[in-house]
Each structure stands twice: as structure tokens, then as C-alpha cells.
Write a structure and sequence with these properties.
Structural class of chain A: alpha/beta
CATH architecture of the largest domain in chain A: 3-Layer(aba) Sandwich
CATH class of the largest domain in chain A: Alpha Beta
Protein name (chains A, B): LacI family transcriptional regulator
Distance between the termini of chain A: 53 Å
Radius of gyration of chain A: 26 Å
Strand content of chain A: 15-25%
Domain HTH lacI-type (chains A, B): 10-64
InterPro entries (chains A, B): HTH_LacI, LacI/GalR-like_sensor, Lambda_DNA-bd_dom_sf, Peripla_BP_I
Largest interface: A-B, 66 and 71 residues
CATH superfamily of the largest domain in chain A: Response regulator
Oligomer: homodimer
CATH topology of the largest domain in chain A: Rossmann fold
Number of helices of chain A: 12
GO molecular function, one term (chains A, B): transcription cis-regulatory region binding
Largest sheet of chain A: 6 strands, parallel
Keywords (chains A, B): DNA-binding, Transcription, Transcription regulation
Strand order of the largest sheet of chain A: 2-1-3-4-5-11
Order of helices and strands of chain A: HHHHEHEHEHEEHEHEHEHEEHEE
DNA sequence: CCCGATGTTGGTAACGTTACCAACCGCGAG
DNA sequence: CTCGCGGTTGGTAACGTTACCAACATCGGG
């Protein structure tokens, strides 16, 4: 940490002496003014305005039992609009409860997550909301976190029992795949994340269940499960479509894979590559999907709502309205046919 | 089996007594261990691990001159990927300097911005980074902020002299419009924000300059400057294209207007509406632009870099390497023809 | 063997705030 | 006129931490 010029804000004492009262009277006035004469309150508020005084929140939260008013939020990738919306939802609910959020980006890095959580605890956060990097759970155990409540979002951590907010990944993937099967497709490819990614695994399970329930075998040749970014997804789609026996439809488990697949489909059409024009089901919405050259079904959801739900769960622990074992909220997803 | 209940965070005193030393020795050990015997350090670290101790950062920053390690960041709309990337850039540089960010969303609301800034100051932030809502500047004046340095991003505040990071809005819009003129277009529409939005005004100026420099008159009938969201942009594009004398090309001043225009263009093609297929220049990139049914030129830039630049400017003030009058950094934009 | 230098450790005070208690005021009831 | 009560105000201590200084141990050189 680099050196910093000292930040000299006026203190409560300076306000007090300017208003001709004691610091206690200033404190009482700022706390609502109970049992302070109206004319004294006015003098105090005038001094506050004149000096540009702000209460030192860090000093306030020093006394035990006092909340810091901060919620620690760690997400995996702020550049992804999904997590931006998620963070927005958390911020909204936090603001409704008079709290601020401290935000950290983990970049899917376990070490960074541990570092962020330590720092959040050190800053006396009132609660933690985390999109876990699915590493180990040691630093998230209650004995490490003390009394700080924790809510997991989007993913679970193996072996950790905590309040969790999830999407209906399995159900959404199941219904999306079923829609393709209902439309007569039997050769349906899968594009998604590897199984160590919690949502990747769940969405694959939904796909697999729909296929096997209808007696359609899953062909590993048209299942690609290791694409994290658009370029990798594009390459995986290309390999799949280049097969002698390419899929007639594709289930894409997330936004990144859908965009990659679309790029490859667009390229083939521009270059006049022969072959089927696959139907696509995408878990995650994307803009201008209606302008795509192939029919796209969207499994849609609201990341902002997910964030709101996570924060609501957290505050229900903070205000004591919820006690007992960890709860899981699974938000529904909607399906929009082209 | 009993649930592991969270416990109060241990203090430095408890660590000290467990390690059989004084709090000062614990403090010294955690501060790097200068002048502490190695075996004592080990005892202390063992106690720290056993008790799960974290330094109380709020208490640390209580002594004057000590930085809080927090940077206050207020942006207008976290749901917009542009600002998500911006926040990511700020977070990255802050993390490189061992700082965390407190994030607030203003939603373009002046009152909310004032409230956020007050709270940030009250939390003793070491610096502020703000995408201003372009309201008045009273709460951002140095006499209100004390010694807390401020960096504005994307926009200026009228009458406020502060470090600022901008895009080359005028130049980008000029070059984008010029590209259309070079391609032979003379009837070029404009879609953008109203002039009270800082970037809206600057981008219009670039468009206007390119037009007048080449002696092409600006026709108010094909200039629409009051669309904040996709639906409004779509309606404005529709009205423009429905004219007896519609534009053959469109300059769109931001992402939201581009998406709206694209929706309308796609609708007309689907519905077989007669008329020209306008070329489009878009200030802001968007995904799958290469799949659009009309040629799209992108004026691209890197919001994450903008965030990094803003944070770099802030830290140059914090570590004293930059002094003197307010500086403005204008980041270049690139043009990608279809 | 002593002395100063160096390394190690602990006590005290202070950062800004507020809970708690004590002191004081004015007013109405007895 | 006194007493007591409620409303108002101020003093003190404490929250967890670290800068500063004092105290003590150890060691090498004279």
C-alpha cells in the first residue's frame, strides 16, 4: 500500500466547541435528537454544515455490537453483464437497508477469494455474499467467519452448509432440451462448462435427463464441456459442425457458449459451408437474438433478482427474522421460443 | 450433531495472552516482525491461526494519517456492461495498491449521488472515483471533500475543476461520420442522448463537425437526440426510416441506440418493408455485430481501461507523484470497419 | 569487568465515537 | 416552600489498534 496524505476531516469535538456544547450533545443530535432542545439542535446542525462534518463511521462501528454498515461481496467476473446485474441487485437491497457494499472480483481464483474474505472480515463487514470459485471451503467455515453470516450465490461449495441462492439450472436445461426433442430433433449437441463448474454440471444434468428420459442416447462426440470463453466455444462449435454426422440442434449452457456458437454459424453461412442450420437453445439471454440467422430459444432469468434474493436472505439473518438451518432458494427460469 | 455456531471475532489481546506476549508484540509481528524474536513470532502466528484472528482494519485506520484502504466508487448504472467493465478496471488497480472499493449505484439520481459521497467520506475513503450524474457540483467541491482526492470518469461536472478521464468522444464521432461520408453517404441520421448528457453532446459535436466540414447540411428531421433506452431508440429509428426521404446511413452515439436501431432494421427486413438498408456506425461495440443484416462500423473503446486509467490518476494523487492542477486524460477510440 | 550499543519487550496514551451514569435545570404537586 | 420527577447536558470510560518511550537483556570491545 502506497503512502497517503493524511485525510483531516473535522471531528465531533470541533463541531461541539463551535456549537458551544459537548460532544455528547452533538452525538445525540446526529442520532436523531432525542432529548436535545430544538434550539440547541439547530446550533449543532449549523456547526455541522459550516465545518462540513461527517460522522466517522469507522470509529462508530468500533464499539462492539455496532454494525459497520458494510456488506462484503465477492464475484467471479464483473466484466460479465450477468454479474454486473447480480451486483446491482445486491447493492439495491443493501441500500434499502442503509448498507454499502465492498466489492471484490475473484477472477475464479481461489487464493484471491480467500484474500478478499479475510479482508472483508478484517473490515468488520456485517455479512458476506459470495459467488464461490468452487475451491475448498475451509476459509468459509463458521469457525473462521465468526458471527458474520454468509450467502452463496449461483453456486454451492462442496461440503459447506450455507444459505444459497441458485437458478433452476437443471429444470431450465431440461425444459430447453425437451423443447428441441419435441420439435423432432434427436441429434442435439451440448456446449457448456466443465463439470467442476457448479452450473456447468447442473445444466448438463438437465440436458442429459431430458435426452435419456426420451430414450435418445447422448453422443459424447457432440458434447463439448470445457469452454470458458467465446473463442473456445466458437472452436468447439466448429469441430462439432464439421463432423460427418453433425448435430441438427445445439443446447448451449451459457451466454459465452451461445455467442461463440453464433459466430461459427454466422461464419459458415457467410462462407457458404454446406450442412444443417442448427436450431439453438441458449441458457442465458443475449441482445438481438431475434436477428440471428437460425431459430434461437432463450432460457431467461434475472441476475439482478438473484442478487436481490441473496441480499434479502442475508438481511433476514442479520435482523434475526430467520434462524436455524441453511436455506436454499432456487429461482425459476423462463423459456422464450423464437 | 450440533451446529457450529459463529463466535465473536478475537481481539489482539486474546491472541497476545494465548501466545504469552503483549499486544504490542502481536502488532509488531503482524506488521512484518521487525525486532521480534523468530520463536516468538512463531508462537504469535500459531495463536493467530488457532483463534482465527483478523486485524480490525477499522480500528487500525482510526489513528490519524492512517489510510482506510478504501476507495469510494459511484457509477450510474451497474447493469450496463460498460460500467461493469469500468468498475472492474478500477477494482483491479485498487487491488494492485492493496485497496478495496466501496461501490454505489447512483441510477443517474443526483440526491443518491450526494448521499453516497457523504457516506464514502464518513467511511474515511482514501479517494473517490465518480461517474457524475451531471447535476450541480456543490457536494464535490474541495472544501466539502477535505483532502480526499476525486477523479471524474466519462463525464465532466460543469464548473468543477477535477482530474478527469474521458473517451475521445468528439474525435471518434468525427471519424465515424467521416467514414460514412467517404463511402458516399450524404444523408446520415443521428441517434443519441440529449445534449445535457455530457457524452451525448460531445458525440453530436463530432458528427456535426464532420458534416459541416464537408459541406453536408445537418437535417434536424433525421437527428434524434433524446433516447436513453433501447425501446426509445427503436421508435426513433422507425420514425426516421418512415420518412419520405429516409437516411441512407445512421450514426448511433451509443450502445443502447445501436441495439434499438438494429431491432428496427431487423423488423423491417422480416416484414419486407421497402426502403434503403442503411449503413450504421456505432459508438460502442456490441456482440455479434458481424451477424447484422447491414454493414456496421464500430467505434470501439475499452471501459476497463478507462477504469484503470481513472484509478491510476487517483493513486498518482495519493502517493504524491502528481501534484498541481487538475488533469484530463482522453483515451483514444478505434474504428473497425465491417 | 564495565560500558555503551543493539535488540527485544511492554506500558501508556491516543485516534473518534457513544453507552452509561451523574449532575443539573425547571416545573407541578403536595 | 419543598420535594420529586422528567427533560437536558456533560464527564468518563471503553471499543481495538499502534506510535512512542521506557525498561530490560544480551553482547562485544575496551
Amino acid at each position: 500500500m502506497s503512502t497517503v496524505r493524511g485525510v483531516r476531516q473535522p471531528t465531533i469535538k470541533e463541531v461541539a466547541s463551535r456549537a458551544g456544547v459537548s460532544p455528547m450533545t452533538v452525538s445525540r443530535t446526529l442520532a436523531g435528537g432525542r432529548n436535545v432542545r430544538p434550539d440547541v439542535q439547530e446550533r449543532v446542525m449549523a456547526a455541522v454544515r459550516e465545518l462540513g462534518y461527517y460522522r466517522n463511521e469507522n470509529a462508530r462501528s468500533l464499539r462492539p455490537g455496532q454494525p459497520s454498515g458494510l456488506i462484503g461481496v465477492a464475484i467471479t467476473n464483473l466484466a460479465n453483464p450477468y454479474y454486473g446485474n447480480f451486483a446491482l441487485g445486491v447493492e439495491e437491497v443493501a441500500a434499502e437497508h442503509g448498507r454499502r457494499i465492498i466489492l471484490g472480483n475473484t477472477g475464479e481464483d481461489d487464493a484471491r477469494e480467500r484474500q478478499l474474505v479475510s479482508d472483508f472480515i478484517g473490515r468488520q463487514v456485517d455479512g458476506l455474499i459470495l459467488v464461490p470459485t468452487s475451491g475448498d471451503a475451509a476459509h468459509l467455515r463458521p469457525e473462521r467467519l465468526g458471527e458474520v453470516p454468509l450467502v452463496l450465490a449461483s453456486r454451492r461449495v462442496p461440503g459447506l452448509d450455507a444459505d444459497t441462492v441458485l437458478l433452476d439450472d437443471v429444470g431450465g436445461a431440461y425444459r430447453g432440451t425437451a423443447a428441441l426433442l419435441d420439435a423432432g430433433h434427436t441429434r442435439i449437441g451440448f456446449l457448456g462448462n466443465r463439470s467442476s463448474v457448479f452450473t456447468g454440471e447442473r445444466r448438463y444434468r438437465g440436458y442429459e435427463r431430458a435426452m435419456t428420459e426420451r430414450g435418445v442416447p447422448v453422443d459424447p462426440a457432440i458434447v463439448a464441456r470445457d469452454q470458458q470463453d467465446v473463442d473456445a466455444a466458437s472452436r468447439a462449435a466448429r469441430a462439432m459442425f464439421d463432423l460427418a454426422d453433425p448435430p441438427t440442434a445445439v443446447f448451449s449452457a451459457n451466454n459465452r457458449n451461445t455467442i461463440g456458437a453464433m459466430r461459427e454459424i454466422g461464419r459458415r453461412l457467410r462462407d457458404g459451408v454446406p450442412g444443417p442450420r442448427p436450431a439453438v437453445v441458449s441458457f442465458d439471454d443475449f441482445e438481438l437474438s431475434e436477428l440471428m440467422p437460425v431459430p434461437v430459444t432463450i432460457i431467461d432469468h434475472d441476475a439482478r433478482l438473484l442478487g436481490r434474493e441473496a441480499a434479502t436472505l442475508l438481511f433476514s439473518r442479520l435482523d434475526g427474522s430467520a434462524e436455524g438451518p441453511a436455506r436454499t432458494v432456487e429461482l425459476p427460469v423462463s423459456i422464450e421460443s423464437p
